Amino acid sequence: MSVEIRNSIESGKTVLGIELGSTRIKAVLIGENHAPIASGSHDWENSYVNNIWTYSVEDIWNGIQDSYQKMANDVKQQYGVTLKTVGSIGFSAMMHGYMAFDQEGELLVPFRTWRNNITEQASKELTSLFNYQIPQRWSIAHLYQAILNQEEHVSEISFQTTLAGYVHWKLTGEKVLGVGEASGVFPIDLNTKSFNQTMMNQFNELIESRNLPWKLEDILPNVLVAGENAGVLTEVGARLLDPSGALQAGIPLCPPEGDAGTGMVATNSVAKRTGNVSAGTSVFAMVVLEKELSKVYSEIDLVTTPTGHLVAMAHSNNCSSDLNAWVGLFEEFSKAMGMNVDMNQLYGTLYHLALQGDPDAGGLLAYGYLSGEHMTHFEEGRPLFVRSSDSNFTLPNFMRVHLFTALGALKIGMDILLKEEKVKLDEILGHGGLFKTKAVGQSIMAAALNTPVSVMETAGEGGAWGIALLAAYMINKNGEETLDEFLNEKVFAGEAGTTISPDPKDVEGFEQFMQRYMKGLAIERAAVENL
Fold first, then answer.
1. How far is it, in rounded angstroms, from Cα 389 to Cα 63?
2. Do 61 and 53 meet the contact criterion of CB atoms below 8 Å apart?
3. What is the C-alpha R_g of the chain?
4. Residue 296 backbone phi and psi in degrees, to 5
5. Burial of 158 (C-beta count, 10 Å sphere; 0-12/13-18/19+)
6. CA-to-CA distance for 138 and 46, rounded, in angstroms?
7. Residue 141 contacts residue 134 (beta carbons within 8 Å)
8. What are the φ and ψ backbone dihedral angles of 300, each rounded to 5 degrees?
9. Which residues have a Cβ under 8 Å from the Cβ of 464 and sit 6 or more positions away?
């Protein structure tokens, strides 16, 4: 097998995918059977600078180069080959946010990530103007808020894009986005698979009195769908990706996508009536719709698959960050007691204890809002754990309530889809860090959604694998073969996985927890209004 893989590498028949997630940049090389054959990763963290969550340009490229080099070293170590070329490349990244550039290609203001809840006025005004939900983290909300704030840089904008679009542009010279990523920039016309021209005209009219030197269509990228060619790696791009000089230019790239779209691909959830939930630093559920929703909901975003199908997205800014902090506290305690505990064992032990807790987590309550939470209208994060004098304060219940609250804001949005809109789901597939401990994240998610949750063996490969599959689809599809067909027949055929159905007692317990969760939010809002 290693000989076959080595031949594939030397002949350029492998495919590379790189995704810039919130806490990790990962590079995955896949073989001709679409399975990963080498990988490399780089850990990074956002910074909170001048009240803005951001990553520096230096951190972006250092992380990309480090993850690529580690992947190339993995190839060399396993197969004795220096990686010089691949069949195609794909880049993806955390969606949304704001990257604005001047005519010289210089970043005008620090990258504003999806994590910033600083565009409430813009979000509300645009949602009203378009009669279409415009979340705070969308790129157009950031742009309009900058206009409302009369920020000086706005008049100098020549190009605005996302993190994935920025990386792709620097490597190819092409100012493009995949339609799934683009749907988090500005609303998409489902017929044209591009930005909604009527809404663009409305926006241009809205800002006409500002006398800006550009119209919206002048500064946004072009939109492409999965399977289209999005340019080739330039000589400059090859050196930017691989400073060692080994990687050759001329490699075709697929349209850059967002982590939501690559999550759908990595879980084979791009067909209608399928859904997936990604649970890590943030948590979001994607449900591919059979028809449009009956009305606009502030809790539900409408985006698309990488092929342009309508998707309802329930997104919470916060999921595992506060939970991870508590596990870190237990690690500190272990070290203080002279014990050197493996982190995987620590997570596994604590997570499995949660399954032994009371169905409703013993009356405990927590909010894991490390950052602001748009779903429940909190601009800044304030993690909180509270209990009443009669609650059952045990370690299993403590872990259970923090797993519950990691999904609390998400459940608000999913209840709208499943209970109010009666959206039909054949299955939900889970991926991300919350599902690494076998059965635990699945069981809690199944209780939260009252829906069976499946996790495939490949779920841990994540979005880097998903964008690699999109790059493979671009060069390997047969004629009019759809992405659905390609994934079903060439990637996931015979794929093994596990499914956990919701336990009625756990479902009832989660609902009881949500009653406390919602009551606490109402008390907080009332207190703020009375200040």
1. 48
2. no
3. 23
4. -85, 135
5. middle
6. 18
7. yes
8. -120, 125
9. 17, 18, 19, 26, 27, 28, 39, 92, 262
Q: What is the 3-state secondary structure (H, E, C) of 112-180?
A: ECCCCCCCHHHHHHHHHHHCCCCCCCCHHHHHHHHHHCCCHHHHHCCEEECHHHHHHHHHHCCCEEEHH
Tokens of 374: 């748009």
Could you list the beta-strand ranges (E) of 7-119: 15-20, 24-30, 36-43, 47-49, 52-54, 88-93, 99-101
Whole-angstrom CA distances from 370 to 191, 317, 384, 521 are 39, 9, 9, 16
Which residues, at least 6 apart from 105, have a Cβ–Cβ distance to it below 8 Å? 159
Q: In the structure encoding, which two tokens stand for residue 133, read together? A: 């939900």
Cα–Cα distance measured from residue 212 to residue 293, given in angstroms and rounded to the nearest whole number: 35
Phi, psi of 54 (to 5 degrees): -150, 165
* 10-residue mean pLDDT series, the chain (531 residues): 88 96 95 95 94 96 98 97 97 96 97 92 97 94 98 98 98 98 96 97 98 97 98 98 97 96 90 87 90 91 94 92 96 95 95 98 96 85 94 98 97 94 87 88 95 78 90 95 94 84 97 96 72 53
| Three-state secondary-structure class, residue 403 | helix
Cβ atoms of 455 and 430 closer than 8 Å:
yes
The number of residues making up the chain comes to: 531
The burial class, CB within 10 Å (0-12 / 13-18 / 19+), for 297 is middle
User: E strands along 442-507, which residues?
Assistant: 453-456, 497-500
Report which of 289, 305, 309 is spatially closest to residue 297, judged by C-alpha positions: 289
Q: How far is CA 183 from CA 49, 303, 406, 420, 424, in A?
A: 27, 5, 26, 24, 23
Q: What pLDDT shows up at residue 432? A: 80
Q: Where are the alpha helices (DSSP H) in 279-342?
A: 321-336
Report yes or no: 196 and 237 within 8 Å, Cβ to Cβ.
Answer: no
Task: Find tokens 């499995």 and name the residue.
Answer: 352
Give the strand pairing for 159-161 and 99-101.
Answer: antiparallel
